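A student in our group prepared the protein record below, which I am reviewing. What it holds is a sequence and that sequence's fold in token form. My question to you is simply how this chain folds and whether the tokens agree. Do not assume that whoever made the record got everything right. I have pasted the whole thing underneath without changing anything:
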Amino acid sequence: MSPRRHLSSLPSRLRSPLAAALVLALAFTASTAHQSSGAKPPDGQTIFRFDTFGDEQFWTDTLRMHQVIQSSVSPAVALSVGLKVDSERLPPDFLATHDLNDPATTVKLIRLNAVVGVVGKVADGKLKSVGITCALCHSTVDNSVTQGVGRRLDGWPNRSLNPGAIIALSPALSDAKKAVYNSWGPGKYDARFNIDGINGPAVIPPAFGLQGVGFETFTGDGPISYWNNYVAVTQMGGHGSFSDPRIGISITQTPDLVTPKLPALLQYQLSLQTPPPPEGSFDARAARRGAALFKGKANCASCHIPPTFTDVLTGPDPRVPFLHDPGAVGTDPGYASRSATKQYRTTPLRALWQHPPYFHDGSARDLPAVVDHYDQFFGLGLDARQKADLVEFLKSL
């Protein structure tokens, strides 16, 4: 696939004059509904949780996921691929009084806006359209009702979500593409596969604790709103515009249902605080020793500079990210080579206890594996106790 995508890459039915007119009319109606009713525009939380940016044009019109859900995705199946249910949207005893092996129950959950990150239109018990939101990958639940069902935790990466397996359910995809999507596994997504055709998924990152970090992507391509725009248009399939000549992308769709919402979305994401480690989840005395190692012998703090634990803003020009060549940190160069910068930014360390595996590709299964990697790569000479202490410190962040 050519890396250059534009409006002509949309399905042919969206390019016909009549279909295009209908899409524009529907999009214009949606974008002006708040203005005409005198209501305030949606705030960042509403955008994060419920705004599809018009991506039904992809999930419904192209992938036909509404048909898949209607016919074969029961709540049990949905939970098995990592989808979450917001318990606060459920009527009393809903789960006890509905068949969780019946796709019709999933349709009811979607009608209630209870499936985290999935928004649909239901009429006469039938799912007419479906789209996704930011919350699909960047929210989970606290499992307070049962596994996969509970109160929302916005900004937490859904590392049990299997987006590839979900996409592969589409009848519109070739067997070859389904094989690629099914190869990713839980907690991973390749945000460039449908641009360059190369298969190299990355772990879903947290969207909390971003205040003051700067250039928040793995490769420092741009600030938060750059990535929100990229994902909304090129990955979610939203009806908006995105352009970056560094990676050969120029997409223009009118009206733009993405760009006007980016400021409010940014403010909400910046408000999401890093969750503290659970009580008793680390050894405080060992963590204090680990903190001294972090700053001293292990030299971690030379790149992971507190309080954000990254050095991405330490260059001479704060408008330009300070980045590292893959070889300088012993990281696989494949993902970086597909980015605008070809390098990696130092990952900000926040709530590490919450989201294994680690590194952009998930190649470190746990924190001891992270410490072992750097001990070997940089020849730090840490003994077993020092490694353990450093892990305890990382668990405390």
